[in-house]
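Team,

Forwarding the record for the chain on the shared tracking sheet. I've put the sequence and predicted structure together so nobody has to dig through attachments.
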Amino acid sequence: MARRPNYNFEKRQKEIDKQKKKEEKAAKKLARKEGGDDDELGGVMDEGTEGPGGETEPSDEDDA
């Protein structure tokens, strides 16, 4: 007689894999946020950073 599959075990393994993947994604997001990696922003620079030619970009706060 064939053994019955243990669906509870399989379901739990899928849940564990899903949680692990979610934690890895959160860790990557946190590392990207802390590291200041701007690759996904398409090269958008923050205010006061050096632009092409070594000049700093002007800030709108100076005009007020």
